[in-house]
Design goal:
By secondary structure, the protein is of the alpha+beta class. The protein contains 3 helices and 8 strands; from the N terminus they run ααβββαβββββ. A hairpin with a 2-residue loop joins β6 (119-133) and β7 (136-150).
Length: 162
């Protein structure tokens, strides 16, 4: 009888484990919106990624991936719901990754995207660090982000933060 009680309790507790609910995408992936961003161009985006701690210290995006995607209805939903809203969306359409570019920030969080087609882009970067907590070290940080517009043959500087 005791074994049955333990078994039933374990099953009930498993039902209490929260799994994040993925939000259904409202925007469709339209290749035609992404097409102007295919291939190379003559533009350059130069920037720095960092976040500030509550105490005012600067934590750079050193050694972390900076993600650049074109501004479309599809990526705007991802930006507003996922980055600004902090909610999980359903997985990306497989063709999305053809238009997603990444760089790794140097020791000061600096990055550069060269040979870009002119247009508007979202940039994002997850920056984390450790802080002392009541039970030892805890992770802190967040998503640094920005929106930038670059013209043909233009070089634009951008700060990626919050």
């Amino acid at each position: 009888m005791k074994c049955i009680y333990v078994f039933l309790t374990a099953i009930l507790l498993m039902g209490c484990v929260a799994t994040p609910k993925l939000q259904t995408r409202k925007e469709q992936f339209l290749e035609s919106e992404f097409a102007p961003y295919a291939g190379n161009g003559t533009s350059k985006i130069i920037g720095q990624a960092f976040l500030k701690t509550k105490g005012g210290d600067v934590k750079f995006g050193a050694g972390v991936e900076v993600v650049l995607v074109p501004v479309t209805a599809y990526t705007t939903e991802q930006y507003v719901v996922g980055i600004l809203g902090g909610r999980l969306l359903e997985k990306q359409h497989p063709a999305y990754f053809k238009y997603r570019r990444t760089r790794v920030g140097d020791g000061s969080g600096n990055f550069e995207f060269e040979n870009m087609p002119a247009g508007e882009y979202y940039l994002s970067c997850i920056i984390t660090w450790l802080v002392a907590g009541p039970y030892g070290l805890e992770s802190s940080g967040g998503v640094a982000h920005a929106k930038v517009k670059v013209g043909s043959g233009e070089s634009v500087k951008v700060i990626v933060t919050r």
